[in-house]
Amino acid sequence: MSVVRAPGWMPHLWIRPESDEPVHGMMLRLAASNGLPRLRSFETMVGVRTHQVRLGDRLDALAKVLRCDVSDLQDRCYRRTSAKMRTFRGQTLGTVKDIHTRIRRVCPLCLSERPFHRFWWDFGFVATCPTHGRHLVSECSCGRPLSWDDVELHKCRMCEDGSVHRLTFDLADPDLVSLDRLLLSKFGVGNADAAPVLDELSPRDAFEVAGRVGALDALGYRTKWVEPEDCGEANAVRARGYRILVEGRLPEILDRVFAEFMVTRERTEEGKLPLPRIDNAYGWFVHWFRFRKDEDFSPTLARIIVANAEAKFRLTADNYPKTARSGGTINLSEAAAMARCRPRNLRRLLAKEGLIRPKIVKGSPVRIERSVAERIAHDLADAIGQADLSSLTGLGSECVKTLVRAGSLPCWLRGGGAEAHRFLFRRREVVEWMHRLIPEAPAVARAPDGSLTLARWPYERKISVKRMIDMLAHGDLAVHGLLNGKRDFASALTRAPG
Ligand SMILES: [Zn+2]
Ligand SMILES: [Zn+2]
């Protein structure tokens, strides 16, 4: 890796980060707006490499160039969790297939509206722009590939007058667009319709499941694993799988696959027909599901398979043990498996809501309504830990800690204690609390002179954050603007003291 020394040069023109603009996209835009023909020259002049900021390194240097706070850049880059895994906005991504760092893709229509790079254009599992319903493009109008050596967003660096705006391109398959919309909603980009099974999965897992279900429909009963690529155009297969899941037609597909198994099964050497079991009746699909860890991977998919299999043959106790057979209540460990938490933690949550006695009573096993377990599983999936509160509220981590300790923030499950459980908060409750404190105010693009964000205010004023919260609660601190209309502490503006 080359070491670059910051020579202290500051570009004359700087830019304001756009929402959904990643730090590496900002590097391009900075280079272009300062009239530099090569990204490389710009990197050398400011002493920051794009590959560094993309992984969250040297953000301070980029923040200086942008005249902004490092915290404004933190959810705009990848976080390294292992050699091959990254996270972005809390979602796990693999470096091999999920993130493009060489190929650059764009939606020309998005670019026409606002010329900046959207972070999700880099995701391998996204094929289209959900806003414009078109495929992303990765080539300039001159036919050369777009890359991260270019500077201008709309063209490659090799030609004079190429432009992606000159390309003609067709509307994408609406189901593929809806799948992309669903995957992106997991990153907080736009909203998507509910999709059973896919809703409970991470973006990369949801992408995989859509492909597997599409492949199952396309090729029917097979013993050998089938990849979406085996069935023709992989994206079309995924779109097909997405549609099946949204319409709740997977049971229908499983019926058909089972029927194919029954007519194609071959006699054993003793001349007997093999009986249907979970391992053979649905071919590769159940083997693949086992490889992905069955019901721990997708409880909903496990429920669909169990419901389908139960009606056809006898399931043994160790087939999906955590997935309830038909019936209204489940036991504590089944419910904990559904909520993906430890039984003792689920017990604490249930006790907190008055649903079970807090003390264990010998000989009276806890039975829980399935609907209650599902609701808690849903709440847990949306719950956040203390570490996430900073990015949600815009307050520094020390301030968050103070407020949690003082009990000012709505806390769902207090942490610490003998079990060293971590604190859990319901995202919705924290947002409601924040909105009660921060009144509506006009959206502004930049902070006017003499104003300050609420996140900075206690420092400047030299009072505790707790005191500021009390003042907000009593209406003693006016908010007269919201940066980009965002209603959090890092965006709400108040008058600077003094
Ligand atoms: Zn677009
Ligand atoms: Zn070109």
UniProtKB/TrEMBL annotation:
Domain of life: Bacteria
Pfam short name (any one): TniQ
InterPro entries registered for this protein in UniProt: TniQ
Every TniQ domain range: 14-136
Name of the protein in question: TniQ domain-containing protein
